[in-house]
Design brief:
Elements: H1 2-29, E1 36-37, E2 50-54, H2 66-80, E3 87-90, H3 93-105, E4 113-116, H4 122-132, E5 137-142, H5 147-157, E6 160-165, H6 174-195
Parallel strand pairs: 1-6, 2-3, 2-5, 3-4, 5-6
Helix pairs in contact: 1-6, 4-5, 5-6
Length: 210
Amino acid sequence: MKQFLKYAAAIVTFLGGTGLLFTVFCNQSLKNERKTYDTDQMENIPSVDAVIVPGCLVHENGKPSFALEDRLNTALDLYRRRKTNLIILSGVARENRAGRKFLINAKVDSKHIIMDDGGLDTYSTVYRCREAFPKKQFLVCTQKKYFKRTGYLMQQLGMNGFCVRADRHSYKKELYEKFRDFFAADKAWIECIITKPKPKYSLKELPITY
């Protein structure tokens, strides 16, 4: 029994070490030279066809979490500074409805808001928006900790786009989110290099709509 436990421990250690090395490899592979922007230097941000707000947590009362609120406010700043006249909300329906309500309350014309309820993750958001609006240029409002992965997905999926920093609060689970995104690099690399899946919902099944 002791011998078996030793073998089992050795196998678990080997697999764990191999998995960690693979994650480190994926994180290194995600590095890219794509430009990123901060709204503190608005004059440097290019005008684009659309700004994308990836979905994020919405509380039970329908209020956007700080992370989503920061993304929405960043998109709002870009809209008000005429960097775009189109905002795409891409996430699950509940997140997009909360985002639409937030933007309309901020006096954004509803004709300038598009809903992508098929953006179930960042991969799907980039894939679907690039497919729906080919040859268009985008700004993606997200937190800095997601820049590397988001930029990599845009690069691999052929989207002409850049990330804009949307950090305006101190987030309670910041360390956990960074830890989770470190391992999310595995999924991004596998999807882009190996499996190359299509999103769960095609544009025909679930169109991007106003």
